[in-house]
Amino acid sequence: MGYSRESENMTTELLSRGFMLSWFASNCSPCNSSGGKCGFDFESSYFQCYCSDRPHANICGLKGKSRTPSAGKSRTLAAGIAATVAGIGFIVVILYCLRKRSIIFFWKEHNKTQQNVEAFLRDYEPLRVKRYSYLNVKKMTNSFKIKLGRGGFGDVYKGELDDGSLVAVKVLNQTKGEDGQEFINEVATISGTSHVNVVTLFGFCFERDKRALIYEFMPNGSLEKFIFDENAAETRHRLNWETNYQISLGIARGLEYLHSGCNTRILHFDIKPHNILLDVEFVPKISDFGLAKICKREESVISSTMGPRGTAGYIAPEVFSKNFGGISYKSDVYSYGMMILEMVGGRKNINVRVDNTSEIYFPHWVYKRLELDEELQLERIRDEEDRVRVRKMIITSLWCIQTDPSSRPTMSKVIEMLEGSLDSLQVPPKPFLYSPPRSPPAESSG
Prior knowledge:
Elements: H1 5-17, H2 29-33, E1 37-41, E2 46-50, E3 55-56, H3 70-123, E4 130-132, H4 134-140, E5 147-151, E6 154-160, E7 166-172, H5 181-190, E8 201-207, E9 210-216, H6 224-228, H7 232-235, H8 241-261, E10 265-267, E11 276-278, E12 284-286, E13 293-295, H9 317-320, H10 330-345, H11 362-371, H12 384-400, H13 411-419
Parallel strand pairs: 4-8
Antiparallel strand pairs: 1-2, 2-3, 5-6, 6-7, 7-9, 8-9, 10-13, 11-12
Helix pairs in contact: 1-3, 8-10, 8-12, 8-13, 10-12
């Protein structure tokens, strides 16, 4: 028999609403008047008048078991009651079996996840991070009092360790069918890293279905708010070009470390402004490794069976279609390039709010001006040094988002391009797959 949670819920709902039973019973007045008690004999399927000497057909004192006109009706009633009782019993048994099967199914799934994560934690011992209980997590966050933000895999809360250190605590979501892989990815990747441009993991909690990750606290939050805040000029969120340049360089160094500075190569697969955190000095830290993949350093291309991963607008072409090449660390390079172009433009690369159709897709717009050697007309460029920084960021980014992965630079080369002379940089071929069609603002997803 097929089983689904929907069918169980439907049956339960029907029973919980209740139902009405009605039947015709024999007139028990004559029996009661004769001093007997009216009852039902399951063996004969007749209503009987139970007297002091023995059961009678209708009233006490009659000889034998005469069948009165009400006997047929009584038999019908008996059959109806018996069928109803049997039906209810059958439904109860079915519900019990379904619920038991459901409990066993979900217990097995939960137990499998528990075993997967515990096996991982054993294999990676001794970890360089501390394991906390869920009670500790509640204590350090003051029962999750201050919420810092929301990510793809959970909410982030402000916390404080016993030594007074401030932390950001990410409480992971529990999604249907989730096997603990996001948790394993984060702990496996970050626990073995140590770099100024990669966020530090202080500890974790894994207690049945309660999972949390404890990171160093970043006072300035994510890079996202400094790029896309439309009121940034008034709220002083806009960063000057020196700071933007240093942030782009710091992110490049963090990615270079992940790609070639660790014992194993770590591919992030979700580089975007939201996942770049800034400390009090605006030093960038790469965070959120829920989609990361660890591979051998000698592996140039990884399996494409892992399925598309990342965020729309930053995903490299080869990640969603093998026609563009193999998936590798060059996929992170593409995401990095798209993100830096958004830093330069101070907006999403696709912007439906502008009036000029040619200015909708910022990479097209900026490439055209580089080709014609026109002024970029960007805000806050104060002097020649700012102009040089911006041009280096743009040219480097355009190389990073080349359609062919083999045409993209490594992150080591990206650092060299950013730190080198502007005169040594060549404008790359036009790297774009297409010019996105213009959509009305009402249809835009933002």
